[in-house]
Amino acid sequence: MSLHKMKFCLAKMEQRLVVSRFFRFFAAEMKQTETILTITGSDGTGGSGVQADIRTISAMGAQAVSAVTCITVQNSLGIQEFFELPVDVVKGQIEAVVNDVQPQIIKVGMLRSVDMVDAVVDMLLKYRARYVICDPTVRSSKGEELMSAEVIAAVKEKLEPLCSYVVKHEEKSAHGRGNLFTSAICVGLSKGEELAEAVEHARDYLRSMPLPEGDGAGRSGELYAAFMENVERFFRRYSDVAFYSEQLNVSTRYLAQVTRRIAHRSPKSIIEERIVEEVTRELMLTNKSLKVIAAELGFSSQAHLTRFFRKQKNTSPSEYRKENQVTIQSL
Fold first, then answer.
1. Would you state the pLDDT for residue 329?
2. Do the Cβ atoms of 133 and 164 come closer than 8 Å?
3. What is the dihedral of CA 108, 175, 35, 161, to 10 degrees?
4. What letter would DSSP give residue 135?
5. Disulfide check for 188: which of 7, 83, 193, 230 has CB 3.0–4.6 Å away?
6. How far is 4 from 74, CA to CA, in rounded Å?
């Protein structure tokens, strides 16, 4: 064998040895913690759901696998839509990871239908993990109802009897971060702690964590203020919500979320109210004709102005002017 070939063979042997050592080390590390399976919904903001579970479990030094039950359309202002995954797809996810990884700690979170509860119960009965931690996601952090009374009843009747630990409402309120709490319990169990010990350590973990940062209220307030400034600037020419959302570089849906959260009103109603205020001011304090007022405020015609004003004030511009001029003269 040539010297070159010998060097090549030695290099390959060294490479195999390094790889072998790595996998032996990795396997030894893996044995120190049990893998945790989280069965819950997806939260695109990362504040909860499967994203938060995986982040917390990984940060605490454990291994996480997941099965997603539903997908949400949401942001810091709340949830707009739910898309529940087919039951067979969820069962397929669970079966795939259980057959491969055989997790002994399972965390169950958001389940939005009785069929989904039944599917998860079937999987738990079939695979019999050592620990099942249940964190029923009844309401979001914004107070949105996530589970119907029927689903809650199914969870209590069918799922909870199979669980090692169920997070109660009082604990969620006390900790304020039920998602972190249950993930921390699972990590403790994965490291060989007894259940009571894992729960206590999870409480300690939450107490040591800094309070979460703002939930987007600052951004909402800034956006709302910018919207109101734009309304004041452009209401004489533009009444279309899409114009204002384009000015602010956000979707009309997001703008509506902001105004409803802060003012409990839609962007359209805010714009129209400002237009009505200006029409009434012109009617009361000027002698401009309705045709001129309509043109100055962006209406297509006097008739358009009259229809709009009647809808808002339940009277015509002419009648309103007459009644309020009399009032002014009598003061």
1. 47
2. yes
3. -40
4. -
5. 193
6. 61
* Run of H or E including 224: helix 217-234
144-163: pLDDT as tens digits: 677 888 999 999 999 999 99
Sign of the torsion angle spanned by Cα atoms 178, 183, 188, 189:
positive
Amino acid of residue 150: E
Distance CA(190)–CA(104), nearest Å, equals 8
Specify the residue for token string 């002014």.
Answer: 328
| DSSP reduced 3-state for 286 | coil
CA 104 to chain centre: 28
Give which of 325, 319, 287 is closest to 306, Cα–Cα: 319
Residues 6+ apart with CB under 8 A from 267: 227, 241, 244, 245, 252, 255, 256, 259
From CA 251, how far away is CA 188, in angstroms rounded?
Answer: 43
Weakest mean pLDDT among 5-19, 26-40, 130-144:
5-19
Asked if 187 and 62 count as a contact pair (C-beta separation under 8 A), the reply is yes
Using CA atoms, how far residue 94 sits from 119, 129, 258, 318, in Å, is: 10, 12, 38, 69
- Please give the single-letter amino acid code of residue 70: C
Query: Could you tell me which residues come within 8 angstroms of residue 71 by beta carbon, excluding any fewer than 6 positions away?
Result: 41, 42, 82, 83, 85
Going by C-beta distance under 8 Å and a sequence separation of 6 or more, which residues neighbour residue 204? none
pLDDT for 325 beyond 70: no
